[in-house]
Amino acid sequence: MKELLGGQEVIGVARIEGPIVVVQGAGSVGYDEVVEVFDSRGRLRRGRVLEVGEDIAVVEVFAGTTGLSIDDTRVRFLGEPLRIPVTEEMLGRVFDGLGEPIDGGPEPLADHYADINGQPINPTARVYPRDYIQTGISAIDGMNTLVMGQKLPLFSGSGLPHDQLAAQIVRQATLGAPAGEAPSQTAQFAIVFAAMGVKHDVAAYFRDSFAESGALTRVAMFLNLADDPPVERLVTPRAALTLAEYLAFERQMHVLVILTDMTNYCEALRQISNIRGEVPSRKGYPGYLYSDLASMYERTGRIKTSEGSITQLPILTMPNDDITHPVPDLTGYITEGQIVLSRDLTHQDIYPPIAVLPSLSRLMKDGIGEGRTRADHSHLSAQLYAAYAHVQDVRSLASVIGEEELSTVDQQYLQFGRAFEREFIHQGPTENRSIEETLTIGWRLLSMLPQEELTRVSPAELQQYYGKRDATH
Amino acid sequence: MSWQIGTVIWINGPVVRVRGSRQVSMLELVEVGDEHLVGEVIGLEGDIITIQVYEETSGMRPGAPVYGTGMPLSVELGPGLLRSIFDGIQRPLPVMEMHTGSFIGRGVHLTPLYRKDRWSFTPQVKAGDTITGGAILGTVPETQALTHRVMAPPEIEGTLTWVAPAGEYTIDEPIARLRTKNGEQELTMLQRWPVRRPRPYRSRLAPAEPLVTGQRVLDTFFPLAKGGAAAIPGGFGAGKTVTQHQIAKWSDAQVVIYIGCGERGNEMTEVLQEFPELVDPRSGRPLMERTVLIANTSNMPVAAREASIYTGITIAEYYRDMGYHVALMADSTSRWAEALREISGRLEEMPAEEGYPAYLAARLAEFYERAGYVETLNGQLGSVSVIGAVSPPGGDFSEPVTQHTKRFIRCFWALDKALASARHFPSVNWLESYSEYVDDVAGWWREQVGRDWQTMRAQAMEILTEESRLQRIVKLVGPDALPDEQRLILETARLLREGFLQQSALDEVDTYSPLQKQIRMLELILHFHQRAQRIIKRGALIVVIHDLPVVTDMMRMKTLVANDQLEKLDDIRKAIDEQMDQLETEYR
Ligand SMILES: Nc1ncnc2c1ncn2[C@@H]1O[C@H](COP(=O)(O)OP(=O)(O)OP(=O)(O)O)[C@@H](O)[C@H]1O
Ligand SMILES: [Mg+2]
Questions:
Q1: Domain range spanning residue A227?
Q2: A268 and A165 in a common domain
Q3: Are residues A351 and A281 in the same domain?
Q4: Residue A409: is its pLDDT beyond 70?
Q5: What is the pLDDT of residue B1?
Q6: Percentage of residues of chain A with pLDDT beyond 90
Q7: Mean pLDDT computed over A373-399
Q8: pLDDT, tens digit, for every residue of B91-115?
Q9: A473 in a domain, yes or no?
Q10: Is B236 close to A405, i.e. CB distance below 8 A?
């Protein structure tokens, strides 16, 4: 054992198991500190300390342990947690899953180095998010309004168009304005994109889409792709969020963070946990999966000392489309709502296939209404929800007794349901609707139902909007 | 005061092992490492001490010193608690913000209560009085909404030799001196109490008063008694937090303790920004003046999350001991149970169900048992009502935390994912929920509200139960197959569901529904039902009933009738009678 560059180095390890090496003979090693691991040919990989005892350290090696041997492996402990450089220059650049540039460009000239784990935001330092983001997508703006500083995941399934939807949101997102006023063009979002275990073409799709909309100079990409080491995935979203925090809270920018695919992240975490022999909770995932995910999702929001904000749009695929699977389940318990995509709607060629009933935006209530979107927005969306929920009942009844046997009102509901899916939810992948258009379509569809059915909207609102011909159509 | 008790030999997240002194005691508060991170002793074996650390341990090394304090984890009690927001181990978060900025730092030692404030103390005892533990020494107007009763610590007795004259004092200045068996002792307005030990009271009484929440489905259908315990289980987005916020805002508790235990930062911020603005309908003062917030959000250290529940309930008991009715909300007890599980896992304890330690049930029982309606040591009546949110994985109530909790509570507000997706809020499922306090509080309703609530409640429940049976038939054959008498049940049930049970927390009027309004709305719906039944028997068609204009009035009465204009409900009753009279003349 010898001291080197402020750190200490050990030659030879005691045990190697999966991506984990157990090192004996290191003196005083810090919990969670970074290590450099060299194979017999002196090639470097990095890792992190998961557990320390008096003479022993358990280390996860991000790139995996293939090619490492017991005797020839050198481990150097660096005496500090994993840090990445942060600077505005990182926008427009591409990094690997650990934050090293892979676009051929130089190392970013760092403003400073920041611990990738961040620190919890003090709840008293937060500003409750209230400014809505207009995405131009009716099912979101009208029914599940996104707010600047919100964490709103897309719950999807394999083969569903979550990437298109996320890319469309990124392209169209602007700081919202009251209905009828032009949205402000001043607030341009910086975008931090983190890929965990997704295919090359997914990353390429996003890059092309950012390039097309001229956003590339505002995007920092952190890529851990499907063939990259799984353990590295545990670092990728944290590295991305560390940059996002810097941009939002020190550089006053509005930052949109896309994390995809969180299910791959969780699988990597499960793998490490299983190898370490930890007691699993559900489906083999570790009991601390909730806290682990929260340590990333909670790095969203606004704080008093900055004008900036972090809005997170994590994407996750639900294994077997099962929303009760631990990954979507725990995510839903942490995030401020979720946008759920539906295979059924996709089969009916509805894009975006947003299943509005299980979707939710918890911050919507304070982001809409008079002076923000429009005074009737809250009642209108509640009524659309109630009516569309009733459509589901009517549909299952119709499948039993036949449509002809339905009461007149229920038949009207069926028509409403179809129109709601085709005209409200459905829109083009480049169609960018104003909030006013969205609300107008909503009222036009509600007008297909008798007034007495519409008890969620007020008599005055009915008076003002019910059955009025669209100005926009 | 602290002294070194050993050195760290092993670190795994929040769990640290130390080799050192055998004099350390279980649950002793310790300080770990050069940063003096706060921790608690959770295991002793020979000279090996196991500690859970309440702060992030990243960077800590074996060999780091550990210091003992000789004290268990305790909270500070005294004027200045109300309006505060603390973390799980009672560190004041606004003061933390002044020290470490927008992010929570490590190793920051802060006194929970501000020492420099001067409080206006008015004595109620005099020199020469003999007092026992819990005696009220005087009062302090802690906020305009609440008078703080300064009490002697629970476990002392003696004769007062000196009492401070009325005046302004800080919490650590003496306000009395007491001669006890063990000599003379100074009393201040500040006391400490170990969080894991329930505070004593004179006797426990049977709960007989409802905790009025202003939420119809709770007050009218599934009431919680003051001093009782309730659980709100529900999947994500089902409405646990909103329901708890509603109770924190509108319930008739005099003090509210709200524990955000492993939940979202923004939800605490929301309360912090909203409560100072909202006015308590009873005191006319901002809600914050009766509220203490404990925030240990999901990204804050898990061990402190485990402690937060105890910190909260100890503060609740302290106000109870002054003779107040306290409501405590814990959101979410599942996150607390998971903190237990995580610590237990790192200790490599033998897991019971789903990785939870075998002592989960015992811990839950201890917590809920601290709810109660008591006669305090000073002879007053006070209560702690506990409302725990439960977050079952996959929304499935058969999991261990929900199941064990059910054994220790008597009021179960089951939230229903399907109702929540249809935006029926509160999504309390009326068939799955129950309250065992119904009989206990029926007398109170009779005396205080003057209505036969229990009978009306039973009638409404019967209609709702019958509806669910009929709905199963409708799903198979359609509604037309049912006779009109049964279709009337569906109609009235719809009125009950949409006109009564549904109550939007976001509606300016309907967010709070006084009991008088609740019972009169219910009465109207039942009255409508009875009259309609007679007319249907005479051969009127259900569509005729469905189309009566008064049906829409009843659907909208919750929002259109302001809480201070209940006489408008009489107009609706008149309308029901007129329209029914009219029908009766048509169907003789
Ligand atoms: N009483 C209510 N009135 C109106 N809306 C409600 C009500 N209760 C719940 N909601 C709606 O449901 C959403 C989710 O509620 P809430 O945040 O309380 O869920 P939760 O059960 O606490 O979820 P989680 O377990 O994820 O924290 C709210 O943001 C709000 O839109
Ligand atoms: Mg909640």
A1: 85-367
A2: yes
A3: yes
A4: yes
A5: 66
A6: 83
A7: 95
A8: 999 999 999 999 998 889 999 999 9
A9: no
A10: no
- Cα A469 to Cα A422, A437, A472: the distances in Å are 19, 13, 9
Burial of A190 (0-12, 13-18, 19+ CB in 10 A): buried
| Chosen domain end from A322, A345, A367 | A367
Task: Specify whether A155 is located in the same domain as A299.
Answer: yes
- Report which of B339, B364, B358, B322 is spatially closest to residue B88, judged by C-alpha positions: B339
For residues A208 and A193, give the distance between their C-alpha atoms in angstroms, rounded to a whole number: 13
Strand partners, B76: B192
- Give the pLDDT confidence score for residue B481 in this predicted structure: 87
A·B CB contacts under 8 A: 210
Q: Say which of B10, B57, B93 has its CB closest to residue A122.
A: B93
* Pairing of the two strands B3-12 and A337-340: unpaired
% of chain B surpassing 70 pLDDT:
100
Report ipTM for this prediction. Answer: 0.93
CB proximity under 8 Å: B 133-152 to A: none
Contact A400 B477 (CB under 8 A): yes
How much of chain B is in helix, strand and coil states, percent to nearest 5? Answer: 35, 25, 35
User: What is the value of pTM for the model shown?
Assistant: 0.95
Considering the domain architecture, whether residues A308 and A383 belong to the same structural domain is answered as no
CA nearest neighbour of A238 among A267, A262, A203, A219 = A262
Is A132 found in the same domain as A59?
Answer: no
- A116 and A50 in a single domain? The answer is no
Q: State which of A360, A361, A363, A377 you would mutate to test the pocket of ligand 1, scoring each by most atoms of that ligand within 8 A of its C-beta.
A: A360
Nearest-angstrom CA–CA distance, A404 and A407: 8
Same domain, yes or no: A307 and A414: no
pLDDT tens digits for range B45-81: 999 999 999 888 988 999 999 999 999 999 999 999 9
Residue A64 lies in a domain: yes
Same domain, A284 and A327: yes
Q: Do A281 and B556 touch (CB under 8 A)?
A: no
Q: Which atom of ligand 1 is nearest to the CA of B245?
A: 18
Q: Any idea what the CATH number is for the domain that residue A44 is in? A: 2.40.30.20
Q: Which tens digits make up the pLDDT trace of B252-304? A: 999 999 999 999 999 999 999 999 999 988 889 999 999 999 999 999 988 89
Q: Total domain count for chain A? A: 3
- Asked if residue A471 is part of any domain, the answer here is no
Determine, for residues B300 and A120 on separate chains, whether the beta-carbon distance falls below 8 Å.
yes
Residue B451: predicted pLDDT: 84
- Asked whether residue A470 is domain-assigned, the answer is no
pLDDT exceeds cutoff 50 at B391:
yes
Average pLDDT over residues B504-526: 95
Q: Flag if A294 and B262 touch (Cβ within 8 Å).
A: yes
Answer whether the bond into residue B483 is a cis peptide, omega within 30°: no
Residue nearest atom 28 of ligand 1, based on CA coordinates? A362
Q: Which of A152-161, B26-35, B363-372, B520-529 has the lowest mean pLDDT?
A: B26-35
Answer yes or no: is pLDDT of A185 > 80.
no
Question: How many angstroms separate the CA of residue B395 from the nearest CA in chain A?
Answer: 8
State the best of A333, A377, A380, A383 to mutate against chain B, taking most chain B CBs within 10 Å. A333
- Per-residue confidence (pLDDT) for residue B540, from 0 to 100: 87
Q: Give yes or no for a contact between B158 and B178, defined as CB atoms under 8 angstroms apart.
A: yes
Task: Write down the pLDDT at residue A5.
Answer: 44
Q: With 90 as the cut, is the pLDDT of residue B479 above it?
A: no
Among A122, A299, A360, A366, most B C-beta atoms within 10 A, so best to mutate, is A122
Does residue A4 surpass a pLDDT of 60?
no
Give the mutation target among B242, B245, B259, B559 for probing the ligand 1 site: most ligand atoms within 8 A of CB: B242
